[in-house]
Design a protein that fits this description.
It contains five helices and eleven strands, in the order βαβαβαβαβαββββββ. The protein has 218 residues and is of the alpha/beta class. α3 packs parallel to α4. The protein starts with 9 loop residues before the first strand and ends in a 9-residue tail after the last strand.
């Protein structure tokens, strides 16, 4: 546990999308600089039993990144029907948070964070907090424009690499999420999967990938 800056405490709020990793790393850098505790929070209206494979993979990757930055706790508030601001404020008070990290752009329910009304509600709930609203680079914001929604898929071993398939068989080596490129008639895109608690991304070209150790950044 970090103790040098115990008068400060960081909370990073993330939601499902491409900027979650960046936010956690930014919060981690602030916590490292101040030598203070770091917490990560995600809020979801669905119960955990209804999460799809994409959400599960996001959570797994974020937990690993949070651990790398020495986070005290990765907090998940699922099946949550209250307003997001109320949930954040509750966690902030409970953990004695002094600095809050949010994304400028986000998706779905988390989009309200970017609106002034959300910020005002949040600051009214927890006026003692310093708020960091982190912008997202153009590349990250436009990422979803190039790929369709992720679907569950598998990689099966073949003689010279791996083949993408969408039905689970005993030949399946890895289970993950396939993001197909928009506008292609073939299975070209990105496959994301967990391997020994490490999130790996590989390029799929016409259903195939030769080397899963050749990682990419999407």
């Amino acid at each position: 546990m970090k103790t040098a800056g115990m008068d400060e405490c960081i909370l990073v709020c993330v939601y499902y999308g491409p900027n979650g990793e960046r936010l956690i790393r930014r919060g981690g850098k602030i916590a490292e600089m101040l030598q203070c505790p770091l917490y990560v929070l995600t809020v979801d209206a669905q119960p955990e039993s209804e999460w799809d494979i994409e959400k599960i993979h996001y959570i797994s990757a974020w937990k690993k990144i949070a651990q790398e930055h020495g986070a005290e706790q990765f907090i998940i508030k699922y099946n949550e029907k209250r307003p997001v601001a109320k949930v954040i404020a509750e966690v902030a008070r409970d953990k004695k948070i002094t600095q809050l990290v949010l994304g400028q752009t986000a998706q779905n329910r988390w989009e309200e964070i970017t609106r002034g009304s959300f910020i005002n509600v949040l600051l009214n709930e927890i006026p003692f907090i310093d708020l960091h609203v982190i912008s997202v680079s153009r590349d990250v914001k436009n990422q979803d424009e190039f790929y369709e929604k992720g679907i569950r898929a598998y990689l099966t071993c073949i003689e010279d690499g791996y083949k993408l398939c969408f039905n689970h068989t005993h030949y399946a080596k890895y289970e993950g999420i396939f993001y197909k490129e928009v506008g292609t008639d073939f299975n070209n895109g990105v496959f994301k999967f967990l391997k020994e608690d490490d999130m790996i991304e590989v390029r799929i070209i016409d259903d195939y990938v030769k080397n899963i150790n050749e990682r990419i950044n999407v």
